[in-house]
Write a structure and sequence with these properties.
394 residues; alpha/beta; 7-stranded parallel beta sheet; 6-stranded parallel beta sheet; 12 helices; 16% strand
């Protein structure tokens, strides 16, 4: 860092932060606290259509308002991507031009498309005289999952190194598995950074509504890649043991149980932070039956939050989450529900996980490791080391 951290400005560009759903809002709030811990200036650039009320100070709505609809026709999506990318350039260019020539500024992107990275490359080419400017790019997907198998990103990374110089570019990710594959593909070092948005101390809540033996929660918006079909199948399990379980999920999952089976509680699709923490606190078991094809190397912020809160979390075999649990001898939490769905076995496993003091002790040990390796303080250490040495060592 600079000798005076207050002269360093960290600008997070968040083109997809439209509301409080997903990880983006919590992520940047935590990064802001990490930056504040170091005495850094912090800004977040948001879409003009962001509908979050009472935004923190220095969070500015300056980015294109367009939000892509996954159900739009293919050609329309291409048109909207191009339109959004060029709008991004037109809206951001004046801000880059106003940056002081010798001011130490870090531009940080943790969620971006190839078209936005292309326009950002053009902007930096036009403002390359800003000698104090650095660019940090956090990649969340393995090369095969990136557009055109990552080729646009690979070439743009090389061009950016020529525009700003190699030491001004930091390629980042938040998984060692991803770092290995991305480093091999990009042919350069990709540093691993902590996940900042964890809640080591949950507020105290009392359970609302009738008490049930075991409360299971499937957090987040319903998606096929996050196990929607598995959760739907679990919701239909019946029998004496199933009566002891309540399954909590977002309203748009449209789950429906049976009178002789699991109790279903549908909650809002987009939760406030307080509501999210309530369900994290009162849940006995977290269910994350994510598709191994999509999450073989990529991280889950929900998983890190759950483990950091000491919550037993059932995950899919073949995912990054399973590899993390294996490191801590928690194979009991790894499920093969995508191979052969066995309702009775799943119910028995949920009850076992909720009641086992042996599993609970191992979760608490993993919790301590996660609270040390992730969170705002860990992210603050990462910022310092990345700025000074280009790598982060836990």
């Amino acid at each position: 860092m600079t000798s005076n951290n207050s002269e360093t400005l960290l600008i997070a560009v968040a083109p997809f932060l439209f509301d409080e759903a997903g990880h983006d809002f919590a992520y940047h709030k935590s990064v802001e606290k990490a930056a504040d811990h170091l005495g850094l200036g912090y800004r977040v650039w948001l879409p003009l259509s962001c509908n979050i009320d009472n935004l923190p100070r220095h969070w500015e709505k300056i980015l294109p308002p367009e939000k892509l609809d996954d159900n739009s026709p293919y050609l329309k999506k291409i048109y909207l991507r191009i339109k959004r990318a060029f709008s991004f350039g037109l809206l951001c260019l004046p801000y880059f031009k106003r940056m002081k020539k010798m001011e130490s500024t870090i531009i940080f992107l943790e969620s971006f498309s190839s078209s936005i990275l292309f326009i950002l490359t053009l902007i930096l080419f036009l403002t390359a005289r800003k000698k104090g400017l650095s660019l940090w790019l956090l990649y969340r997907y393995e090369p095969a999952q990136l557009r055109l198998h990552g080729l646009p990103y690979k070439y743009l990374n090389q061009i950016l190194k020529k525009i700003l110089s190699p030491e001004k570019i930091r390629l980042l990710t938040d998984s060692h598995l991803l770092a290995h594959s991305l480093s091999a593909y990009f042919n350069e070092k990709v540093a691993v950074v902590p996940i900042p948005h964890v809640h080591p101390e949950l507020p105290s809540f009392s359970k609302q509504g009738p008490l049930v033996g075991v409360t299971c929660w499937w957090p987040g918006r319903p998606r096929t890649s996050k196990g929607l079909e598995i959760i739907q199948a679990i919701s239909k399990i019946d029998g004496p043991k199933a009566l002891n379980i309540k399954l909590v999920a977002a309203h748009n999952s449209f789950l429906s149980g049976s009178p002789d089976g699991i109790k279903i509680e549908l909650i809002k699709d987009t939760l406030t932070e307080k509501e999210y923490l309530y369900w994290l606190n009162v849940s006995d078991v977290i269910l994350l039956p994510y598709d191994p094809k999509t999450y073989s190397q990529g991280t889950s912020g929900i998983f890190v939050e759950a483990i950091s809160a000491g919550k037993p979390t059932l995950v899919s075999n073949g995912t990054w989450m399973a590899s993390e649990l294996t490191k801590h001898d928690l194979g009991e939490l790894i499920m093969n529900w995508y191979d052969n769905f066995a309702g009775g076995e799943i119910i028995s496993r949920i009850i076992q996980v909720a009641e086992s003091s042996f599993i609970r002790d191992k979760i608490l040990a993993m919790q301590k490791v996660y609270q040390k390796n992730h969170g705002e303080e860990a992210f603050a250490r990462a910022i310092t080391q990345l700025a000074e040495k280009g790598v982060y060592e836990q």
